[in-house]
Amino acid sequence: MRKIISTMAILGLSTSVFAHDYKLEPKKINDNTWCFLGKLEAPTKNNGGFMSNHCYVNTGKNYVLIDAGATYELAKQAYEKMSEIKKLPVSTIILTHEHDDHWLGASFYKKEFNSKLIGSSLINKNYNENSKTRMFKMLSEDAIKNTSIIKVDEEIKEVKTLKVDEVEFQIIPIGRKAHSSDDLFVYVPSNKTLFASDVVMNGRITSNRDGSVIGQLKAVEMIEKMDYNNLIPGHGFDTSKNAINETKQYFTLLKQRVLEAVEEEVGAANITKHVKMEEFKDKALYEELNSRNVFDAYSELEFYEEE
């Protein structure tokens, strides 16, 4: 009996001591850029919040990150993987918007390297050290442990050029509500890589709960005017020049069909039955997110007048 109890105690202890294993493998984008591409899922205990993308750029003597992942432990394991490629300090992290799956991991880098955090002012405005965001509520203790809210050191309100070692980064605010109320693009001219964050997703349906159909389409127009070879989405595995195609199609059709439904006097109670976006029914999270997107689009577009 004592042996059984001892074994159970050890097993119980192991769940609290051992960290969530994210099984990470970085994807090489070009000569100095690697990304960790999250699962096409909502955050769950099983995925530990690894359901968004974040990237490392080797600037020579440092790493600059675009977003930082959802937890301290995810960030720690990502850095361990990148150290197998080259062990460098993380000097700077650019946080593209306020959704917590993209920036809670910054707590690891702040502790280990005192990395400078640059990003959306909404992180500082909407969160403090006592905030319990989605990840704190949804993830297991072994995934969320050591994670904390870290304030942004520099808020971005206008276009900024940042140079780290010999690599230039252009940080570009969208300037209007798109995926969220305050989204940033990051562009690296030397390798023509554009980090679009959650303005672009592929392989899954987007969540537009904090966004705008019109703003998303304006952001797509901004992207299409830029010269890039790689486009890194906030969620999704396609990092090619074509990574934007699904987002453009989805929001173009969503706007068109909701406006047609308004013209036909379809009411709010029936809009999700009338506009189904069935071209995307095989994409991840269609059942969970599409109807809400349609309903929110109706609320936005019911009295819309073309600009």
Automatic annotation (TrEMBL):
Keyword Signal tagged: yes
Residues in Metallo-beta-lactamase domain copies: 52-235
Keywords for the protein's UniProt record, in alphabetical order: Signal
InterPro entries linked to this entry: Metallo-B-lactamas, RibonucZ/Hydroxyglut_hydro, Sec-metab_biosynth-thioest
Taxonomic lineage from the root: Bacteria, Pseudomonadati, Campylobacterota, Epsilonproteobacteria, Campylobacterales
Alphabetized Pfam families for the sequence: Lactamase_B
SUPFAM superfamilies: Metallo-hydrolase/oxidoreductase
Signal sequence coordinates: 1-19
Coiled-coil spans in chain: none
Highest taxon of the lineage: Bacteria
Name this protein carries in UniProt: MBL fold metallohydrolase
